[in-house]
Amino acid sequence: MSRHIPRIYCPECNSEGFWVPEYQRNHMVHVLRMREGTQILAFNETHGEWLCEIESIRKSSIDIRMISQTRAFMNSPKLALGICQIKPENMKLVIEKCTELGVTDFYLLKSEYTNYTNNINKLRRIAIFASEQSERMDIPNINEEKHLHEFVNNLPAEYAWFSAIERIGDAQYLLDFDLDANPLGFIVGAEGGFSDAEKLLLNQKTTAICLSQNILRSETAAIVCIAFVGMMKK
Questions:
Q1: Which residue, 79, 49, 80, 84, is CA-closest to 67?
Q2: Over the stretch 180-190, which tens digit does the pLDDT of each residue have?
Q3: Which domains does the chain have, with CATH numbers?
Q4: In 3-state terms, what secondary structure has residue 191?
Q5: DSSP E strand boundaries for 24-159
Q6: Which of 53, 54, 127, 195 falls 20 to 30 Å from 15 in CA-CA distance?
């Protein structure tokens, strides 16, 4: 059923149905070409996922009638990615693909070699669309930018943290670790990698890992980390 019915994230709901945000209304009407009578799957973190029907479409609102619940809400297993900001088109790719792969917490970082900033609201919408498409029930958190040194010195304690540091002699491959032990977090550098001072700090506070015999682009390294976890988790 869900393969043929569009899924729409609607963060608010009342006794009559889901409330559709403005950007979702535009997407539903002008991109997806939905009409009155169209059935959709609407979901949020409070009410789970419901089969719904569009009752009316107005200029400023869409009325959605709830028919039956299809799934109760369930959080995704915790998985974090800290990534130094990169080109907007590449950052969008990271947010989209890593949302599909299960990241629950994104941390945007500024490092010595960071040359870009990204619009966090646009990234959040990309995460919403990726959650809709991938049929996950929750939307990942995208945290405001922090400086890499501040973040690493105050790492969220619930995660076992790894850092993708290229060209460091004692780094091990992910395959060497027990990935079922704790919620995992990964830190990936900007274009140009990490500075020597940043490598020293990361090596002190996190576990250094090597992802490939080749040097990977930032977006590739981020997706490889998260995809590998998905493949190895039991």
A1: 49
A2: 767 999 999 99
A3: 7-71 (2.40.240.20), 79-232 (3.40.1280.10)
A4: coil
A5: 39-44, 48-57, 62-71, 79-84, 105-110, 141-147
A6: 127
